[in-house]
Amino acid sequence: MRKPVIAGNWKMYKLVSESVETALELKSLVANASHCEVVIAPVFTALKTVCDRLEGSNIRVAAQNCSTEIAHSAHTGEICADMLKDVGCSYVIIGHSERRQFYGETDLSVNQKTKSALNFGLTAIVCVGEMLSERESGRERDVVKMQLTRGLNGLTANDMARIIIAYEPVWAIGTGKTATPEQAQEMHGFIREVLTEIHSKSTADATRILYGGSVKPENIATLMSQQDVDGALVGGASLDAKSFSKIVNYK
Ligand code: PGA
Predict the structure, then answer these.
(1) Rounded CA gap, 126 and 110, in Å?
(2) What gap in Å lies between CA 137 and CA 146, rounded to an integer?
(3) What distance separates the 2 farthest-apart alpha carbons in the chain?
């Protein structure tokens, strides 16, 4: 009942021409993928061109961040969520750990950005996940629960229909060290429990929870076989169309 989502986060890679090249190659490789939603997140500067070139395809486009502000205003360097919608995006990634670690993203800004994204009809992919030290000290559940509680504060069950959670343990991102399918399942199951506490079992059951952190063509199938893993947020392995298409076509 939960349609899987396979999303590629291109981070700060690819010029416009390279983004278009990868997107078009991917378009034909995943043309028959109806079992999941396919999403790519190019850099801001490539969004408009990529969205235009993918029109009519089954690939949706995400931005990697948006402003906390909902009104066009004097905020140098920021991009309002409706501007993303304007160029053709339908998703936005919010609170990625790299933004939390290096750009001062907090649970409060994640919350504001999520509200802003929903306000303009975008689907928000909200990222949570613990650092290695937090896992080593046995605090991973507390950390993720806090990120969810604060990040989703004030959002209604209705809003949750346009929110996707991405669990990305920071120690697994770009390290080649994937969480085991059991570790992923354990945390995803816990996230669903937290969503049940915040909302209800039916809302929790309907929410897609993606796993992220060194997902590759070789490990996607076992991750997807876990009952609470509803897709993946893929970094490195999404930069190459062939490798990302193998992840999309994991079945
Ligand atoms: P990775 O990145 O697949 O390269 O580990 C995942 C992410 O940062 O979303």
Answers:
(1) 8
(2) 16
(3) 48
List the structure tokens of 81. Answer: 């969520």
Q: Is 72 annotated as catalytic?
A: no
Residues 96, 105, 134, 199: which is the catalytic one? 96
Structure tokens at 135: 């896992």
Q: What is the pLDDT of residues 98-143, one digit of tens each?
A: 999 999 999 999 999 999 999 999 999 999 999 999 999 999 999 9
- 233 within ligand 1 shell (Cβ under 6 A): yes
| Whether residue 238 has its Cβ less than 6 Å from ligand 1 | no
| Minimum-distance ligand 1 atom for the alpha carbon of 237 | 3
97 CA: nearest ligand 1 atom:
8
Q: Report the distance separating Cα 15 and Cα 75, nearest Å.
A: 25
Which helix (DSSP H) or strand (DSSP E) does residue 233 occupy?
strand 231-234
